[in-house]
Amino acid sequence: MKVAVVGATGMVGSVMLKVLEERNFPLTELIPVASEKSVGKKIAYNGKEFEVVSLETAVSMKPEVAIFSAGGDTSLEWAPKFASAGTTVIDNSSAWRMNPKHKLVIPEINANLLSKEDRIIANPNCSTIQLLMALKPLHDTYKIKRVVVSTYQSITGTGVKAVQQLENEYAGKKEEMAYPYPIHKNALPHCDVFQDNGYTKEEMKLTNETKKILGDDSVNVTATAIRIPVVGGHSESVNIEFEKDFDVVDVRKILSDFPGITVQDNPELNTYPMPIYAEGKDDVFVGRLRRDLSQPNTLNMWIVADNLRKGAATNAVQIAEYLLEQKLL
Q: What is the mean pLDDT of the chain?
């Protein structure tokens, strides 16, 4: 079992290596892949060292699985080359997500759609993954009509440059900036680039990917994505209107029973999800469950997850694990 990690030296790529190691993924050979400037560097994995190779070299090595976290342009160019060589690609960029020929997968929700013919599989957006983990079991029970979501997103979603910007601002240094404004002591209502409709790409990902993963175009989603000076994970304030009425006690149990969700919901003890506690964990944390008093059949909740783990690396590795378990590789 040869596994290539494309973008192995990046922020998400390094977490992918960590997750593969933690979960004892049964690989016999790791192929770390990065840009030409990183070729030849050594990557430590499971007590051994592996040399970083180029994309071209990695394709020629014919890995069974290639997990990509190297940006959309790289994925568009190289994922088909790996697939043509017989490799199953799990891609963390937005390149293939809305392509009708490719599956968009959260293993707990729709891994059963996968087959041996799926050579390029899309990993959803980090914000979408944690949102859908909470929405799916409730949609199955109460049928969702409309979702209003505001995200409060970690700077790690932007990458190393954003982390460096925040650290520089803490230290009072003026260096290269990842954002158009300071992020320290600030909140930017600006994740990804603005579209002609006034929404950002990130906001439209939440709308479009939700419909595709649920397989239901009738679920309406409207989003506002905000970047905040936090490192541990993304948070979401979510308002959900259902077709059927619900009991909050039942909602709490439905969520608690769903794999990969931890309910933290006890206001009397100040128990609720926070990114400071979600960091480094694979679960999606849900709390502040309460009825919307302004209209019927509507629920408010708060969702938090580590965007580098379940929002990216862990979800991708879980897809690979499913393919292996079902003998689809």
A: 97
